[in-house]
Amino acid sequence: MLMVVGIFMFIVTFCGCVGSLRENLCLLQTGRGKVTEMINKSIVHYRDDIDLQNLIDFGQKEFRCCGGEAFTDWSHNIYFNCSDKNPSRERCSVPFSCCIMTKDTVRFRLHLYSTLMCGQGMQELTYIRAGEHIYTDGCIDKLANWIHSNLFIIGGIALGLANTAAGRHASVSDFDQSDQRPDRAAELQRQAPLRPVELNQIRMFLNSTDCHAL
């Protein structure tokens, strides 16, 4: 997973970096498309993974945004969908991380229920009315702009994550292969039966040379 995230972020930053330096519209659109794809998938799977949920909540609060293109994108999630067939109590709502944290909200933050339910029914409101309670701007533009402003830093971190994950994967593969290495003495015994004394001598020789051969 770590390697996948690192590679994904590296591709996004690479496209953005090269696209900016060469003013290549195609690469810039590719980078934006990857960001859009990532956010839309995250919205769909918001409740499936607690780590993903925390990451989205952090992003929406940090960038003061809600959804992908707009706050109504949360209708793509089965729990926040506005369909009449949706039995969820969160129907046509948005996550609490979309809510505007005013001084009054912070002051009465101990009232956990009112804080968590502040996004209730917001998708049924107009942009203007919803904007009084939640962030209505989407996160795609804000995240894309932030990535564009921090291309080299993010690219270095992403490359480091990919290298670290690749190193771990290689170490695990080497360990598995060493565990699965057959007994060479037993293989010789199957090919040409030996007396027990000869077999033990071969095993002792192989054990004494394994550490030098590897």
Walk me through the structure.
There is one protein chain. With 214 residues, the chain is mainly alpha-helical. It has a domain at 183-214. The chain is built from 10 helices and no strands. Helix 2 (25-44) packs across helix 7 and helix 9 (184-191) packs across helix 10 (196-213). It is elongated and about 85 Å long.
Short description:
It is found in: Cell junction, Adherens junction; Cell membrane; Cytoplasm. This protein has a domain at 183-214.
Sequence-ordered SSE layout with sheet pairings:
Layout: H1 2-22, H2 25-44, H3 50-63, H4 103-107, H5 112-116, H6 127-130, H7 139-149, H8 151-179, H9 184-191, H10 196-213
Protein name: Tetraspanin-33
Organism: Oryzias melastigma
Keywords: Cell junction, Cell membrane, Cytoplasm, Disulfide bond, Glycoprotein, Membrane, Signal, Transmembrane, Transmembrane helix
Structural class: mainly alpha
Uncertain segments: 1-8, 18-22, 178-182
Calculate Rg over CA atoms. Answer: 28 Å
Strand tally is 0
Q: State the major sheet.
A: none
Order of helices and strands: HHHHHHHHHH
Helical content (DSSP H or I, runs of 4+): 55-70%
DSSP strand content: under 5%
Overall, the morphology is elongated
Q: With helices defined by DSSP (H or I, 4 residues minimum), what is the helix count?
A: 10
Distance between the termini: 30 Å
Average pLDDT over all residues: 72
